[in-house]
Amino acid sequence: MERHEVIVKIDRVSVLRQGRPLLQEIQLQTKIGEHWALLGANGAGKTTLLQIVLGMLWPTEGDVWVMGHHLGEYDVRELRKDIGFVSNRIDSYLEQNVQAVDLVASGKYATNGNYVTPTTDDLKKAQDLLCDLAAQQIATRPYALLSQGERQKVMIARALMADPKLLIIDEPCTGLDFPSREHVLFALQNLAQGTIPQLLYVTHYPEEIFPGISHVAILKEGRLLAAGLKQDVLTQKMLSEAYGLSVSLHWQDDRPVVRVKHDSLQRR
């Protein structure tokens, strides 16, 4: 893929369900080499937008291109071979009693850890991916016995087995304690510095936007508030508007630190 090649293009996309707008006139374009965070409160439209990009939901209006393919004119099953997807919704479908390394290897074949016997080369690649994520020590442990943070690393490594051109990571830190969250974010930071063409990281929390994220898109009530370089988008004014509260913002180690101003809580 050429540098600056467009990976995702969303043109005036709207989604209506039972007369209710879930997305309204979304316009967004991402290019290879950019790593994006999709940020917003509950109900902002993040999940709906993900479903559009993955070809799981069709817009009521507008057009979507993913890696040059116009959705609706291309087999989404073929398209998904170039997209890695990590979500807690996948966790329950994965075989619980296989070793972590075998589950990672299953990502090459899009299985849940059953039915396919990985080759020696598959297992070597799976081991290397776990090592890249600082998770080599869990390779031979059953998936069922892993902590939530370790499971996230296995799912990320599994998604990378097929060498995706786009890696979508949907709220991986949900339910994690502080140290586990930082381990996952550190692993993703290392990944962003590697060869993955593009990350799309979805979160409710600005503090999870790690240094490797270059661009941010903020959604509120189905509308795109802002999109662009993270330092331009993540401002006190924009975050206060997105979350409906007055917040303070400062940067530490290239990560945003956001606090709600107490007087805005008292006014609610």
Description:
It is a single chain. With about 270 residues, the protein is an alpha/beta fold. The protein contains ten helices and twelve strands. The strands form three sheets. The chain has a six-stranded mixed sheet with strand order 6-7-8-3-9-10. It has a four-stranded antiparallel sheet with strand order 2-1-4-5, with helices on one face. A two-stranded antiparallel sheet has the order 11-12. Helix 6 (about 150-160) runs parallel beside helix 7 (about 180-190). The model has no long low-confidence stretch (mean pLDDT about 90).
Summarize the structure.
By secondary structure, the chain is α/β, with parallel strands linked by helices.
Keywords summarizing the entry:
2 domains; Rossmann fold; ABC_transporter-like_CS; 12 strands; alpha/beta; ATP binding; about 270 residues
Indicate the topology:
Elements: E1 6-17, E2 20-31, E3 36-39, H1 46-53, E4 61-66, E5 69-70, H2 76-79, E6 83-87, H3 88-91, H4 100-105, H5 120-132, H6 148-160, E7 166-170, H7 178-192, E8 199-203, E9 215-220, E10 223-229, H8 230-233, H9 236-243, E11 247-252, E12 255-260, H10 262-266
Parallel strand pairs: 3-8, 3-9, 6-7, 7-8
Antiparallel strand pairs: 1-2, 1-4, 4-5, 9-10, 11-12
Helix pairs in contact: 6-7
GO molecular function, one term: ATP binding
Domain ABC transporter: 8-246
InterPro entries: AAA+_ATPase, ABC_transporter-like_ATP-bd, ABC_transporter-like_CS, Metal_Ion_Import_ABC, P-loop_NTPase
